[in-house]
Design brief:
Layout (H helix, E strand, L loop, with lengths): L6 E6 L4 E4 L3 H7 L11 H13 L3 E8 L3 E13 L5 E15 L5 H15 L2 E5 L5 E6 L5 H9 L22 H4 L3 E3 L6 E8 L10 E7 L21 H24 L8 H30 L9 E4 H18 L3 E3 L8 E4 L1 H18 L5 E9 L2 E7 L31 H11 L3 E6 L5 E8 L4 E5 L7 E5 L3
Helix pairs in contact: 3-6, 6-7, 7-10, 8-9, 9-10
Length: 478
């Protein structure tokens, strides 16, 4: 008895699907391809490539997702030969075709994956308040320098004031869900950009503000990268000259690896998903090393200074815990930040204190046993405001406690993804803010890292008397 085929298709020597019957044609379109374009079904493309490369007749099962259903099909692939004996393409014959409804994806997990990919592709990250007003901004791409300066000078204004949305005449800012994924243009950049808004706060997303990520539709080439007159040809700067060029391709490697790992592009064998996870992890390690070396160059420069301001250490701690919350859950660690409303006013640079706390909390998560807790506590002694990160790890022997603050010191640890620079850089920053970073620990009793900075006095309002009365702020107790 002959085999009954459900559909046929033709692929040429270049891997282009030149003809296809339904339902194969419909699946090609659902996977983002066209008739006449490259085979867009990932597992089928791998089989076609193998058959053409080795001239083999194959009969294999492949799986795919058309957006709503999971398809499992059996295909026979017959290479065709040209007059000179070379492979001219192949014929496809679909023997079976089964569909099943896709299981409903966990919305929280899906949102987390989208946020991970957006962060890895991002060339700009800005912290926004619940009304989408700019609080702070950091930029990695040189063609966003003008936007960075504009946002820094316009804190408190909606982020949508600083970009353009082609064809959109609606009053800005719109609801954040309508802006998530929106394309925009930026003055001073020839590239187009996609915005991703990561909501913060529970149970209402966005109640604690947002993180805005802008990612470009294409990487910036070397010929487009103007270093400006400040570049010193014989002594290039890692942070200013080299880091922006390295970060973009590494970010895209990580993002593509994450897309493969999480199977967003379609089904994939588990071993290949594991390979992609290794690629993403190695990329993150390399990116962290670049960040640490860039920070090292900055903090060791003679002109390094911070920008002190009145900040609340409690707010910084809660934000740091929010940023690292997913990582802590993955490691089975519980973060215990100061409760909402608890604060400690200080004179320091918000961004630098956040950088130090993220490093300390990240270390605590990394070296704490599963099921343990990491506490963040506030205190004040005299004119010093303090914030302590305490863990339940193995602790640090007394004779090694000062060594952890030395450059490239890792106390014999290997394979943990650290560079040995985080605590050295954090202490340099703390001392640049007229503060310090210290540790108390004992073997088997965890470690307590304490950042101390100048304390700030409470402000209260006191009206002046008279017809031209104004409000003046004075320190509490004066």
């Amino acid at each position: 008895m002959g085999t009954r085929y459900l559909a046929h298709g033709m692929v040429d020597a270049e891997g282009l699907l030149t003809a296809a019957d339904e339902p194969l044609a419909g699946l090609q379109h659902a996977c983002g391809g066209d008739i006449g374009g490259t085979v867009a079904i990932p597992e089928l493309l791998a089989l076609v490539t193998k058959a053409q490369r080795y001239g083999l007749r194959l009969a294999r099962q492949f799986c795919a997702i058309d957006g709503e259903e999971r398809i499992t099909a059996w295909v026979e692939i017959e290479p065709t030969t040209a007059t000179d004996g070379s492979v001219a393409g192949c014929e496809l014959a679909i023997v079976s075709w089964q569909t099943e409804e896709m299981p409903r994806e966990d919305e929280v997990e899906a949102a987390r994956r989208r946020s991970e990919i957006a962060r890895n592709l991002s060339d700009l990250a800005a912290r926004l308040d619940p009304d989408q007003n700019v609080l702070s901004v950091e930029v990695d791409a040189p063609d966003l320098t003008r936007l960075e300066l504009a946002m820094q000078g316009g804190t408190g204004r909606p982020w949508t004031d600083f970009v353009d949305f082609p064809g959109n005449t609606h009053l800005q800012p719109l609801h954040w869900r309508l802006l998530d994924g929106a394309e925009c243009t930026v003055e001073g950049s020839k590239r187009s950009w996609t915005a991703h808004l990561e909501p913060l706060g529970q149970p209402e997303p966005g109640s604690a503000g947002f993180v805005l990520h802008l990612s470009a539709n294409k990487p910036l080439g070397f010929h487009e990268f103007d270093l400006g007159e400040t570049k010193t040809p014989d002594a290039p700067s890692l942070g200013r000259d080299i880091s922006p060029v390295l970060r973009q391709p590494i970010n895209r490697i990580i993002a593509n690896a994450e897309t493969i790992r999480t199977k967003l592009a379609g089904p994939l064998a588990e071993e290949y998903s594991d390979y992609a996870a290794d690629i993403a992890s190695a990329g993150q390690h390399l990116l962290s090393l670049i960040d640490d070396l860039s920070d090292l160059e900055i903090v060791e420069s003679e002109d390094f200074v911070t920008a002190p301001d009145r900040i609340d250490l409690g707010d910084v701690a809660r934000q740091a815990c929010g940023i690292l919350g997913v990582r802590a859950r993955e490691k089975g660690t519980t973060l215990v930040p100061p409760v909402k409303g608890e604060g400690q006013l200080a004179i320091a640079e918000f961004r630098r204190v956040l950088q130090i706390l993220i490093n300390l909390i990240n270390n605590a998560i990394r070296y704490s046993p599963e099921g343990s807790q990491v506490w963040i506590r506030l205190d004040r002694i005299g004119q010093r405001a303090m914030i302590t990160v305490a863990d339940q790890g193995h602790g640090i022997p007394e004779d090694q406690q000062e060594k952890v603050f030395e450059k490239f010191e890792r106390l014999g640890r290997s394979g943990d993804g650290g560079s040995g620079l985080g605590l050295y850089i954090s202490r340099r920053i703390a001392r640049a803010m007229d503060g310090d970073l210290t540790v108390e620990s004992a073997p088997g009793q965890g470690a307590r890292f304490t950042l101390s900075v100048p304390a700030a006095e409470e402000l209260r309002s006191r009206p002046r008397e008279g017809p031209d009365a104004t409000i003046v702020e004075v320190p509490e107790g004066k």
